[in-house]
Design goal:
alpha/beta, binds iron/sulfur cluster, Rossmann fold, 3 domains, binds molybdenum atom, binds ligand MGD, 30 strands, 22 helices, Dimethylsulfoxide Reductase, domain 2
Length: 691
């Protein structure tokens, strides 16, 4: 069976073949994104299907302090419905909240949003994509009027002479994508912006290593260098953009020497980077989480977009700006209504026309649709408080490990009257739940995913699910019916749900109306928008104009601000967090694959040897990384390629190794993105300080 990987946004093509003696063989196939390649996580993905502790029956807890025990589906769903009703009767509709995930298929994300607004009638729904894509999405909307991570096929990158990667470590996070960077790399045009010398930076002709959280100043320095070097594309800026003068008034003050003072990146390197981009026939500026996951992340992305606009890249064939979406359905997951302020088709929930359209598809009065709710961290932070939700339903996320200030988030979850978690494995969040519902996963069900280039793909059911598990769609249907909804309004057939999604998205910015499972089964490559059954889809956006008034892109007048938590005498180092090749996200899935555990069995802190020595630490020691919120205990890994003022901890591990015990929940005011990529810490030997 031809299908796609369960993990990241590349959605690499693979084939699954059941083995005669049991188990499944995974092989890469020729799909443009991965062209026959897979990363280690993809190769071993089938092991997840029969993980020894795979959830196979619903579990319930009779009291908060009682252990989870097996239950029938009817018992578990009846219990959830009864307690949801009671909470809503006592505390109002918004006392029940929903938390979704960017790994859910489009069908699930759509039905989850509908379930929240129609069956629960709560405004309190958001999802983990808030922690992932939201800053780039907001900046993209502001600049181009539309947010599609890559507004061009990934394979277009292969034609570029120069590419700047800001805060993306694709050699570890999207290995098969590296092949599309080859030409730029061979021509000496690959530029990587990262405080660490990553495996990706090793491929680059130029590695710029800014202090964490100073990308905006760096992008201003580069913009200054482009203009001062006479490389501003005046014709393009005049014809296709607006707002340059206001943006330049700020950038004019940021000569590269000034940007060097703030970022630590030598002015000569800034000029070299500007020269490489300006001198390339075809060039791209791409951003990843390193530049986006800051309390000022939206403005940081805007600054990189400004640079791309000054160079005339967006909307030009063979060039552009793009954000590298992360989760398997990180793109589709942010289009169809599991976001607090959104309705399907990438519509705004406060837009009256959008409400009327979607309410008509749903067969409910538009006035009954709730308004916008809290963003992800604000929602988690409010759980169990006097004004916050008292019940939470989680689908496809493991916030006990992945949310910022995770110790506090775990306390908030424990303060709930009811926590329900739908998952395939007993994640750290599921283990805290009152009710755990076991669901089918990727290879056991059909469903569509929208990959990082806006291409909608069909993941096919390749094998039977273990007895006792149900699909997320069936769970939503079961709950909706128990809450008084008509079963027909909550289909559990993915194809039927997708057809409804098409109608709900019709006419919206992310229009899927013309996409259908059978077109995808036939192998058509369909990028949204695709408004009609005979429409060929839109692989490249913006070639004729941007999705803003007059077709013009907009420069944002953004200026550098310091990080929310600069280092000081007590916490003298920057800590940043991110990923390693072998593990995926909270690790709930990959920590159950033996080969991946052998590759990386626990967390570590990457630190410069001089910094380690000053802290009395050597390679292989146990260290504590302590912030104002908490401490992480990890192994020391000395690497000369990281800035001496910065340490790095991967966030895939649970318990005392949780990077998010220390991370800063300061939020971007526009996107609600937490500052995962920068907080102030000190480093001590593990036994040097009481816990
Ligand atoms: N192996 C693996 N692959 C994955 C995932 C995974 O968990 N594991 N997750 C998927 C998902 S959901 C996502 S979102 C993507 C994320 O993919 P990436 O964005 O590539 O991943 P990160 O490791 O979070 O961050 C990238 C880099 O940002 C750097 N960085 C830290 N602070 C700063 C800063 O202030 N400025 C700049 N310029 N860089 C900084 C870090 O050192 C890190 O190397 O990966 C996807 N692919
Ligand atoms: N410190 C720090 N924290 C971070 C980040 C960082 O860079 N640094 N990155 C952030 C980013 S970019 C992201 S995307 C988040 C991700 O963090 P999480 O939201 O925790 O992501 P996952 O670990 O993918 O969680 C998915 C859960 O859903 C389950 N699951 C998988 N498929 C299905 C399904 O079809 N249905 C259901 N019901 N469950 C399913 C999995 O088993 C797993 O338990 O973490 C964020 N947290
Ligand atoms: S790069 Fe992403 S989609 Fe491809 S095999 Fe690895 S995890 Fe799967
Ligand atoms: Mo992500």
């Amino acid at each position: 069976m031809k299908t796609h990987c369960p993990y990241c946004a590349l959605q690499c093509g693979m084939t699954l073949t059941p083995r005669p003696g049991g188990g499944v063989l995974v092989e890469p196939r020729d799909f443009p994104v991965n062209a026959g390649g897979l990363c280690r996580k993809g190769w071993t993905a089938a092991e997840l299907l029969d993980a020894p502790d795979r959830l196979r029956t619903p579990l319930v807890r009779d009291r908060r302090d009682a252990p989870l025990r097996p239950a029938t589906w009817d018992e578990a769903l009846d219990l959830v419905a009864a307690r949801v009703r009671r909470v809503q009767e006592e505390h109002g509709r918004d006392a029940v909240a929903v938390f979704g995930g960017g790994g859910l298929t489009n069908e699930k994300a759509y039905l989850l949003g509908k379930f929240a607004r129609v069956a629960l009638r709560t405004s309190q729904i958001d999802y983990n994509g808030r922690f992932c894509m939201s800053s780039a999405a907001a900046a993209g909307l502001r600049a181009f009027g539309l947010d599609r991570g890559l507004p061009f096929p990934v394979t277009d990158l292969a034609g570029a002479d120069a590419i700047l990667l800001a805060g993306a470590n694709v050699a570890e996070t999207m290995p098969p994508l590296v092949r599309h960077l080859r030409r730029a790399r061979d021509r000496g045009g690959l530029i990587v912006v990262d405080p660490r010398r990553t495996a990706t930076a090793d491929l680059a002709a130029l590695h710029l290593a800014p202090r964490p959280g100073t990308d905006l100043a760096l992008a201003l320095g580069l913009l200054h260098a482009v203009v001062a070097g006479g490389h501003l594309r005046r014709g393009y800026v005049g014809a296709r953009t607006e707002g340059f003068a206001a943006a330049w008034r700020i950038a004019a003050r940021w000569r590269p020497q000034e940007a060097e003072r703030v970022t630590g990146v030598p002015a000569a390197d800034q000029r070299a980077a500007a020269g490489l981009l300006a001198g390339a026939g075809r060039a791209y500026v791409l951003t990843g989480r390193g530049t986006e996951q800051h309390a000022g992340g939206v403005d940081m992305v805007s600054a990189w977009i400004n640079l791309a606009l000054a160079l005339g890249l967006p909307g030009r064939p063979g060039s552009g700006y793009g954000c590298l979406t992360g989760q398997g359905n990180g793109q589709g997951g942010r289009e169809h209504g599991q976001k607090a302020d959104q309705l399907p088709g990438y519509r705004r929930i406060d837009d009256q026309d959008a409400r009327r359209h979607v309410a008509a598809v749903w067969g409910v009065p538009a006035e009954e649709l709730p308004g916008a709710g809290r963003s992800a961290y604000e929602l988690l932070d409010a759980l169990g408080t006097a004004s916050g939700p008292r019940a939470l339903l989680v689908f496809g996320s493991n916030p006990v490990v992945s949310a910022p200030h995770a110790g506090h988030v775990a306390d908030r979850l424990d303060a709930l009257d009811l926590l329900v978690v739908c998952d395939v494995v007993p994640s750290e969040t599921a283990l805290r739940a009152d009710v755990v519902l076991p669901v089918t996963q990727w290879a056991e069900e059909d469903g569509t995913m929208t990959n990082l280039e806006g291409r909608v793909l069909l993941r096919r059911r390749a094998l039977a699910a273990p007895p006792g598990v149900r699909s997320d769609l069936s769970v939503l249907r079961g709950l909706a019916v128990r809450l008084g909804q008509d079963a027909a309004a909550f289909p559990d057939d993915p194809e039927e749900v997708f057809a409804e999604l098409g109608r709900a998205s019709s006419g919206g910015p992310a229009d899927y109306a013309g996409i259908a499972h059978d077109r995808l089964r036939d192998g058509e490559a369909l990028h949204w928008p695709c408004p009609g059954a005979r429409h060929p889809g839109t692989p490249r956006l913006f070639l004729d104009g941007f999705a803003r008034p007059g077709g013009r892109a907009r420069f944002a007048p953004v200026d550098h601000r310091d990080v929310t938590e600069p280092p000081d005498a007590d916490y003298p180092l920057y800590a940043t967090t991110g990923r390693v090749l072998a593990h995926y996200q909270s690790g709930a899935q990959t920590r159950r694959v033996p080969e991946l555990v052998r590759a990386a069995s626990g967390a570590h802190v990457e630190v410069h040897p001089d910094t380690a020595r000053r802290a009395g630490l050597a390679d292989g020691d146990r260290a504590r990384v302590v912030s104002r919120r908490g401490a992480v205990e990890v192994l020391v890994r000395c690497v000369p390629g990281i800035r001496p003022d910065t340490v790095f901890v991967p966030f895939h591990f649970p318990g005392a190794e949780r990077a998010n015990l220390m991370s800063d929940p300061a939020l971007d005011p526009v996107s609600g993105m937490p500052a995962f990529k920068s907080c102030a810490v000190r480093l001590t030997p593990a036994n040097g300080e009481p816990a």
